TrEMBL record:
This is proton-translocating NAD(P)(+) transhydrogenase. It comes from Daejeonella lutea. InterPro entries: NADP_transhyd_a_C. It catalyses: NAD(+) + NADPH + H(+)(in) = NADH + NADP(+) + H(+)(out). The transhydrogenation between NADH and NADP is coupled to respiration and ATP hydrolysis and functions as a proton pump across the membrane. Its EC number is 7.1.1.1. GO terms for cellular component: plasma membrane. GO terms for biological process: NADPH regeneration.
Length: 102
């Protein structure tokens, strides 16, 4: 338990940055009008593509005993892939709404 407190104390600045980033992201996304949803989805797909590549690189360079890096890299690959695929499905569905009906 003491090592967990030591780790939190050592990385306190990073934890603050992550927490503030989460709140800032929620505020920014909450104020986006629905008209801009599709262009932002395309941008999010591109960003998550970079996240997937970065996670694969981190996993490739991590030591085999560094389970934290391997687990976080694996989760980043899975969640990034789900977000990219979901974004393409939503974008495709929205674009179908503008096609002429047969």
């Amino acid at each position: 338990m003491e090592t967990a407190f030591d780790w939190i104390t050592l990385h306190q600045d990073m934890i603050y940055i992550v927490v503030l980033s989460v709140f800032l992201g929620i505020e920014v996304i909450g104020r986006v009008p629905s008209v801009l949803h599709t262009p932002l989805m395309s941008g999010a797909n591109a960003i998550h593509g970079v996240v997937i590549i970065g996670a694969i690189i981190v996993m490739g360079k991590a030591d085999s005993g560094n389970y934290t890096a391997l687990i976080l890299g694996f989760l980043a690959v899975i969640l990034g892939t789900l977000n990219v695929v979901g974004g393409f499905v939503v974008t495709d569905r929205m674009l179908e709404m503008f096609k002429k009906k047969k």
